[in-house]
Every structure is written in structure tokens, then in C-alpha cells.
Design a protein that fits this description.
Elements (H helix, E strand, L loop, with lengths): L2 H13 L17 H4 E13 L4 E12 L6 E8 L3 E9 L2 E8 L9 E8 L4 E7 L1
Antiparallel strand pairs: 1-2, 2-5, 3-4, 3-6, 4-5, 6-7
């Protein structure tokens, strides 16, 4: 117990209440999946090819965890909540995919939700509009 804890314990002893304060306690919730895995720094680009009528998307995001980016086992993209796409590992914590589509047009609005999972089953989420 640190100095603040001793002073607080002594003061509270005279008032009839007694609390033990541990100054060295670390606070984090190891059961909180939103803290264990996080996704950040997305990069999305789209090119439309007039000759073929297709859109080619390049989608990338960084995934990390308390144990480091090597603990991430997969990142899944839910495109407009219909399409489920697994991203491939691109190195240095980055996950990416190239999607060629006639349906998902570059000039339409879309909703992208990323879900990253680590070895322990924790998940992190990142959502963004296009």
C-alpha cells in the first residue's frame, strides 16, 4: 500500500470506516472483447472500368490485439450486411482483399463492417460508410 493508501486508511480508521486502497492495482477488464481486439486505419479504394462495367475494390485494415497483431487469426468484412468476405493477411498487421464486382458499384453508397478475431475468440469491430 502506498503513502496515499496509508493516510486514507488512518483517516478512515478514526471515522469508524476502514477501506484498503491498493495503489499498485492495474485496471483493465480481461473479459471485454472490445478492448482485447481492435481494428483501425482502414483504406478503401474503388476503380470503375467502363469497358467491362465492373468495379474493382481494394480494401485494407489494420488489426491488433493485446498479444500483438500476430494473435489475430482472421478479419471478415460484411459488405452492406449481405456479402461476407474474408480478408487475407497482408503483413505487419494489415489485412486486405481485392473484390471485383458488377453489383457493388464504386459510385453507390455502401456500408462496410469489419470483424477481427484473435486466437482466444475475442472480436473487435470497425464500421464505416462508403
Amino acid at each position: 500500500m502506498g503513502k496515499a493508501g496509508v493516510v486514507l486508511a488512518t483517516l478512515l480508521l478514526f471515522t469508524g470506516c476502514f477501506f484498503v486502497v491498493d495503489d499498485n492495482q492495474e485496471f483493465y477488464d480481461e473479459g471485454d472483447p472490445f478492448w482485447e481486439v481492435w481494428l483501425e486505419d482502414p483504406y478503401v479504394s474503388c476503380n470503375y472500368y467502363v469497358t467491362t462495367g465492373e468495379s474493382r475494390w481494394y480494401i485494407e485494415i489494420y488489426a491488433d490485439s493485446v498479444g500483438g497483431p500476430d494473435d489475430i487469426i482472421g478479419v471478415t468484412l460484411y459488405l452492406d450486411t449481405y456479402e461476407v468476405i474474408d480478408l487475407g493477411y497482408a503483413g505487419q498487421g494489415r489485412w486486405a482483399i481485392i473484390v471485383t464486382s458488377y453489383y457493388y458499384d464504386c459510385y453507390s453508397s455502401h456500408y462496410l463492417q469489419f470483424v477481427g478475431t484473435d486466437y482466444y475468440g475475442y472480436e473487435g469491430y470497425y464500421s464505416m460508410p462508403w
